[in-house]
Amino acid sequence: MMGMMNTDDHRAVAVIMVGGPTKGTRFRPLSLNIPKPLFPLAGQPMVHHPIFACKRIPNLAQIYLVGFYEQREFALYVSSISNELKVPVKYLKEDKPHGSAGGLYKFRDLIMEDNPSHIFLLNCDVCCSFPLPEMLEAHKRYGGMGTILVIKVSPESADQFGELVADPNTNELLHYTEKPETFVSDRINCGVYVFTPEIFTAIQGVSAQRKDRGRLSLPADFVRLDQDILSPFAGKKQLYTYETMDFWEQIKTPGMSLKCSGLYLSLFRHTSPHLLNQGDGTKSATIIGDVYIHPSAKVHPTAQIGPNVSISANARIGAGARLINCIILDDVEIKENAVVIHSIVGWKCSIGRWSRVQAEGDHKAKLGVTILGESVNVEDEVVVINCIVLPNKTL
Question: From what superkingdom does this record's organism come (predicted)?
């Protein structure tokens, strides 16, 4: 049966970087209750979206989450998702920051345990369609050490990211620079990669070089993927790019999480239509556009919901309520005729009758989205516009 071997003799593992509690400070007050990677977008934890995308990788042996959160914060999620996906998902806690490449290297023995031919590396706080099987195919064609997912952005916004130049014919990475002072390129790094195990030799090389030079500015085991690997290996026929034509956003702030929740809801139309709710206002509420409602939530048939709304467990939405472009978290009560627009309503909040909670809807502006922390009580007939409210307040 020799012919069987060459069809697919590769094996893959995926590593998802989830960061830690010191990192998500821009995500407050929402990250006060829950690690940012577990914050729900489109009704599923943020990290669920990259994990679910990994399910499409052929011959996937393991998924590792690497970060600084305490083990117990991820224990429940990791066991339930492993059961659901039928792929082992493990959380690995870093003892100290090692940089994006150093973190990978620290756990190299575990990562190489299944003897994979390919290692996917994904960042948890990016939102895209994660075209992983397509990247893998391209990566095998290129025959390099690594392939980077890239996207074309407006020239004005490019300098906030890692800009790169690739050969238009071969897609070889020719030049890479992190957040450059002057314009280099409108192609940026999406923070999604596939590598061969050679990546570990490359990371080890950077560490060894540092020890030789005796450079004390950075510890030898602190290796950044962008500055220490991507920049020096560019132009050496080692790294290649794969361009996504879909969407891509970074989820740094609650405002962006609301936008990304909408992007994932619209992706569900293609990937998981069963997760989206329908309704015309007869037996159930009127649903407009892409809406996710947790099965345990109670929504009055006279409510109007959508577009871009996700409603979490045990929420109660009263008669005549109107919800547009919002995330409603667990155990929220929205009373009759209340209006919620461009907002995130935290766990156990209560919004009174005829109240309005709203914002301008600019996802990038600091107060473009109204955010209510946990257990905020908005009384009847109160109007809340462009606010971030800390937990346990009454308005």
Answer: Eukaryota
